[in-house]
Amino acid sequence: MPKQTLDQLIAAGEKIAMLTCYDATFAKVSAAAGVDVLLVGDSLGMVLQGAENTLQVTMQDMIYHTKCVAAGAPNTLIMTDMPYGSYEHDIEDACHNAQALIDAGADIVKIEGGEFLATVRHMVKRGIPVCAHLGFTPQSVIQLGGYKIQGKTDESAQKITQDAINMHAAGASLILLEMVPANLARQITEKFKIPTIGIGAGIDCSGQVLVIQDLLGIYSGVASKSPGDYKAPRFAKNFLAESGSIQQAIANYVQAVKNKIFPAAEHSY
Ligand code: KIV
Questions:
Q1: Ligand 1 pocket test, candidate residues 39, 54, 84, 215, most atoms within 8 A of CB
Q2: What is the structure's pLDDT at 14?
Q3: Which of 14, 115, 155, 178 is catalytic?
């Protein structure tokens, strides 16, 4: 079966089910469960490496895990995060790093923030599809003062909307919205033909993404802290609790996204 393209996925008119993935075994299981897009997220810094945040993840890490995922799911679309420090400083370096991720097996690269319009234009001109991650951007967790919902004030909502408009104009293929009010995500989604993918952004995005450890209910915070001190984010849902197997849990997530059952109001802001 040939790999589905993003355009085919959009043309199918269904909600897009995206899930993070970092290795070949989970890639294979997730593909069999019907996941549309596997996100090799730099969340691997936290869920695989046990760090406090995503900031120490390197290009080598992302290349390695992208290759692992591509080996396990050769027919599934793969999106890979450009890690902190790999795209912010120099446009040529950014294009070179994006190309390295594409060569490792990614179909789309994801960058965080609305500032890097010239970089996105260059990547798109060179045939590299880009997703713009807006709202709460984990690589800016220190500047943002922690894991906080974004877009609550008029000013912040306008900034996120304008960033989405600019990224769309620069040629981004997808907009990922993290931890923004559901109303704002709906308004942004209604503006564009390109899909929006939500995580803590309500039901009206064109698709959803979850971190697989959250879907399985197995993440309990950074390695150095006691699991009892960890509170899962509002948008996380443990699908394994009501499923007999990991593959069934992932399949139930996919169906819940497609049937517009997940995220429910309790997972949204
Ligand atoms: O790195 C990641 O897993 C992500 C998701 C939280 C969207 O960017």
A1: 39
A2: 94
A3: 178
Give the pLDDT of residue 101: 98
pLDDT mean over 180-200:
96
Cβ atoms of residues 130 and 110 within 8 Å: yes
In this structure, the number of other CB atoms found within 10 A of the CB of residue 266 comes to 8
What percent of the chain stands above pLDDT 70?
Answer: 100
Alpha carbons 144 and 176: distance in angstroms, whole number: 18
The pick from 208, 211, 213, 215 for probing ligand 1's pocket by mutation, whose C-beta has the most ligand atoms within 8 angstroms, reads: 211
CATH of 6-267, one of 3.30.1360.70, 3.40.50.980, 3.20.20.10, 3.20.20.60: 3.20.20.60
pTM of full prediction above 0.85: yes
| 178 counts as catalytic | yes
> Which residue CA neighbors atom 1 of ligand 1 most closely?
41
